Amino acid sequence: AEEALRQSQKLEAVGRLTGGVAHDFNNLLMVVSSAADMLQRSDDPKRREALIAGMRQAVERGSGLTRQLLAFSRRKPLKSAVVDVGEQVERMRILLERSLREDIRVSIDVQRPLRPVELDVGELELALLNLAVNARDAMPDGGELTITVFSEPTNDERICIRVADTGVGMSPAVQSRVFEPFFTTKEVGRGTGLGLSQVYGFARSSGGDVTVQSEEGRGAVFTLCLPTTDKALAAEVSAAPPAAPRAR
Ligand code: ADP
């Protein structure tokens, strides 16, 4: 869970970078362009040296920026484990509450029985955090965040996590774009537009999907559904105490 928090902070930092990157890039290009102009007009060898050094520096900074962007877009391989999704969500309670505000009430409802799901636990934690942080941002005056884990009624081969808030909601136009990378309605520096694309990428790479339902002024509901597996739960997760020796 600590790792998920660290990862989401990193994601946010990289996101801030991408938000400001176009601006920074433009400034660097301006530096190069005006240095080139001055270079053309100057005969002083010392001055020309300094201008060239300045251009090199700007170019290096520019390629540093693109390197960081590329590092972000590179997908790391999934580390899959067979888990009980309900248990994973319950484990996140403290972290979720800490990521929200005091005026937001969190309730978690796990409807058992649930079949096991094979997924990357780190990605699941990140997805839940991203959904919770969005819900928080959508409820500036407080509200309720309700997380429900259930077996899909029509098809018990999938386990779903429903994350519902009582926030500002979204127009149909916004709803149709929320999963796009870099789509955000938040001001520069606050939104990265990467949260829901992580959720979408996680859902798809796990063989599931994620949908949104919302009405302006009436909150939003995100539903993440994942396929179940016949494999046995990972030992670490199903750590049942050893059976007591039978009395004779
Ligand atoms: P970010 O949060 O950085 O903007 P996301 O990909 O997480 O990026 O979300 C994209 C956009 O979707 C948000 O800017 C917001 O407009 C909308 N959105 C996401 N979650 C909610 C929500 N729970 N309620 C209202 N709007 C939301």
From TrEMBL:
Task: Describe the location of the Histidine kinase domain by residue ranges.
Answer: 20-230
Q: What is this protein called?
A: histidine kinase
Organism, scientific name? Peiella sedimenti
Tell which residues of the whole protein are contained here: 211 to 458 of 582
